[in-house]
Amino acid sequence: xxxxxxxxxxxxxxxxxxxxxxxxxxxxxxxxxxxxxxxxxxxxxxxxxxxxxxxxxxxxxxxxxxxxxxxxxxxxxxxxxxxxxxxxxxxxxxxxxxxxxxxxxxxxxxxxxxxxxxxxxxxxxxxxxxxxxxxxxxxxxxxxxxxxxxxxxxxxxxxxxxxxxxxxxxxxxxxxxxxxxxxxxxxxxxxxxxxxxxxxxxxxxxxxxxxxxxxxxxxxxxxxxxxxxxxxxxxxxxxxxxxxxxxxxxxxxxxxxxxxxxxxxxxxxxxxxxxxxxxxxxxxxxxxxxxxxxxxxxxxxxxxxxxxxxxxxxxxx
Length: 317
Known about the structure:
Layout: H1 19-32, H2 41-58, H3 74-84, H4 89-92, E1 97-98, H5 119-130, H6 134-147, H7 149-162, H8 175-189, E2 200-203, E3 208-212, E4 214-215, E5 218-219, H9 229-246, H10 267-275, H11 289-297, E6 300-304, H12 308-315
Parallel strand pairs: 3-6
Antiparallel strand pairs: 1-2, 2-3, 4-5
């Protein structure tokens, strides 16, 4: 049975004969990120490529008919995959807002930055390899554009939600920035008696993380125990729902999860989001609130502040 197959996709190990090829792939990464390689980098890469192709031939195995280059569908799906690949870098980068001052994401480079592979070079390569004419390749690009419409909606939403924070310095613990964080929480989750400093916000290109410092049903803020009881009760009830939905499959809105009720989102915020698309290229026909909400639902996650790093690495990078 072929190892590159759906039936083996979740297996934890590969056969031993794959080891030389995997080691060569690791060498590619080392050379690519070696600042001392200089002018020899190209020669090193060519040598590794030659050895890698030799190893690849040893691993040759029967492929499903649809994956064979001779199949009628190969040209179509391979071209779609090539044009789709650069879109992945647009999902997690950049980070627009960070009221916490995190450093975790700095340690995780994007494999293919958005500006590292101009789309015209990809188009020319596809035209050369597969003999695409301009009209048919344009049709493939239009299909990819339709498939990634939700990505563009999310990126625009993230930009709109980030804009009020633009005047505040990332990581600065000032009242203005933290009031904006409270405002965003209230816009997304309804009226809550939160105070500046109760909420932190991280907004990436396609995700919104609202971070609360809590333990159990209480905020861990120094003054929480001194607040009026009605305030503490409302926040505790909110945190209970947050934690109940955190462990329930009901709250999964992949890639987001946890408590989020569209009915609580402020109408004024929805209007602002919809209006933000009026002059957006690619949305000349307009967009309705239902499509915006569908994207927003899978962007927003409410997290305990103490655990934000591990979620960022998983969900943003």
